[in-house]
Amino acid sequence: MTATPSPDQDTVWVEHVDLIDRVPRWAAMLALAAIVIGIWDLATARTGWVSPIILPSPGETLDDLIFVGRNLLTGGYMLEALWTTTRTVFWAFVIAAAIGFSLGVLVGETRFGERAVMPYLVAIDTMPKVAFAPLFIAWLGFDIASKVALAAFIATFPIIVSTAAGLAAASENERLLFKSIGAGRWQTLVRLKLPTGLPYIFTGLKIAAVGVMAGAITGEFLGGGQGFGALIRESASMLDTPRVFSLILYLSLLGLGLFFLVAWAERRLVFWNRADRPGGVG
Amino acid sequence: MPMAEPRPLTVTPAAPQPAGAGRPVYEIARLSKTYARNRLTALADVNLTLHKGEFVAVLGASGCGKSTLLKIMAGLLPPTTGRVVLEGRAVTGPRADIGMMFQQATLLPWKTTLENIVLPVEIREGRAAARAAVPRALDLLKLVGLGDFAQVYPGELSGGMAQRASICRMLIANPAVLLLDEPFSALDELTRDFMNMELQRICAEQRSTAFLVTHSLGEAVILSDRVLVMKPRPGRIVEEIAIDLPRPRTLDMINTPRFGQIVGHIRNLLGKEAFQ
C-alpha cells in the first residue's frame, strides 16, 4: 500500500456503493418492519409501558388477525360486513368515475363549463364533504345507498379536476396538427385530447380510489349499517383495540385491491407512457 | 420598397419570376391581417406566388408576421383582406392538399409510426381509406429511410427519425404545397444539416412546392430558390432574394464565397431591423 501511486502503474478506482444501495429492496423493507415491530413489542408486551387498551402487543394483534381471517374465510358475519363495504366502495367508485369524468369533460372541453360550472365545483370542493353525511342519511336512509352517495361525493372531485387537466394537456402543436388535417371538435376530443389526458385521468382515479374508501368508512361510522366501518366502531366502543387494528388491516387490503386494479388498468391502457420517450413525442 | 443603393442580389417582388419556374401553385395577393382585438396589423400588402417545384423560405425577426402568414396559408387563420388561392381555389380552411410540418414531430405516442403517417387520411376519410393508404405510407417510409420502423412506437424513435416520420405524414395525402414551420429547429445542428439535405432530396423526388418559415439564415439559403425577408410593424415582405447556387445543393456549398455573400447580405437586412 503506497500513498502515492507510481506513475508507471494504472490507477484503479474502486467505486464506493452505499450499504442501502447494495441491499435488495425486500430486505430493507423487512428490516424496517422488524425494527418497528421490535420496538412495538418492547413497549407493550415486554415492558408494559403502553397499556394494552391503547396499543395491543404485536402478539395480541396477530392472534386477532388470525381470528378475523378465519371468520372471513369461513364466511362468518365479518365476511358479510366486508362484502357490504366492498359493494359500497365499488358502486361509489363507479358512480364517482362516471360523474367525475362527465363533469370533467364538460369543464375541460366547453367554455360554458369552464366559465359557468367550474366556479361552483370549486366552491363545493372547498366544503368539508363529510359534513354532508347527515343529509345523505336523511335523504337515502341508513342502508348502503347513503354511504355510496357520501363516498362518491368525496371521490368525484379529484376525477373532475384531473379529467379537465388531462384535456388541457395536449400541446399547441398537436392541436394545430389536428386542425390542419381537418379534424372536427369531436375527433380532436376523442382522438387527441382524451388519449393525451389518460395518464392524468388515471391519477384522478387513483386518488378517487383512496377517497372512496375513506368516504365509505366514514359513512358507516356515522350511519351505522352492516359494513366494516360499523364493526370497527363497535369494537372501539368495547375497547377491543386488537380487533380495531386487525379490522383496519383487512380493510386496507380492500383499498389496496381497488388501487392496484386502477393501476393495472392504467398500465394496460396507457402503455406508451412507460417507455422513456426521447425526441419527437414531446 | 425603394432602396438607396442598388442591390445586385435582389429581385423586387414586381420583377418577373426566376427562369425555370413552373406554373403558379399558390398565389397570394394584397394580403393583410389585422387583429381586431388589439388593432394590431400583423400583415400588410403581402404578395407572393409559389411555383410548381419551387422552394421558398421566409426569414424575419420574431413578431414579423411570418407565422401568421404561414397559418393563413394553411387555412388555420382567416385573412382580413386579400386573395389566398391554392390550385385555383380560395383557401378558406384546412385542406387535404396542404401538407404541414411543425417544429416538433408531434407523433401520437399511442399509435405506431405507420398509424401516425396515415392519421390525416384516417381523420379525413375514415379507417377504410387509412387502410388503403398503408402501401403508400410504407413507400414513403422507405423514401425517408425508415422502412424498418413502420410498426415501432414513436417513443422508440430518435428526434431526427420522428421528424422523418412527420415528413411522411405530411406527404401521405399528396399535397400540392408543403408548409414547413421551422421543422428541424428542435434538432441538434448535425442532425439538422443532415435532415435539410434529406428534405431537399425528398422535395426533389416528389417535385414538391415548399414554403419554409425559419430563423436560420444558412438553412433558408441552402434549401431555397428564393428567400423572402420580412419586417414587422406592419408585417411585410421587404426583399426577395433569388438564390442562384446550383442544384442539388450540398453542405459543402456553405463554405463557398457565394453562399457567404448571400448570407451576409440577408444578415445585413435583418440586422438593421433588429437593432432599430
Cα distance spanning the termini of chain A: 53 Å
Q: Which CATH class of the largest domain in chain A is shown?
A: Mainly Alpha
What oligomeric state is this?
Answer: heterodimer
Distance between the termini of chain B: 18 Å
The global form of chain B is globular
CATH topology of the largest domain in chain B: Rossmann fold
Number of continuous helical runs of chain A: 11
Report the CATH architecture of the largest domain in chain B: 3-Layer(aba) Sandwich
Q: What structural category arises from helix and sheet content of chain A? A: mainly alpha
Fill in the CATH topology of the largest domain in chain A: MetI-like fold
Strand content of chain A: under 5%
The largest sheet of chain B has its strands arranged as 6-7-8-3-9-10
Number of helices of chain B: 9
pLDDT < 50 runs, ≥5 residues of chain B: 1-7, 10-17
Low-confidence stretches of chain A: 275-282
CATH superfamily of the largest domain in chain A: MetI-like
Describe the main β-sheet of chain B briefly.
6 strands, mixed
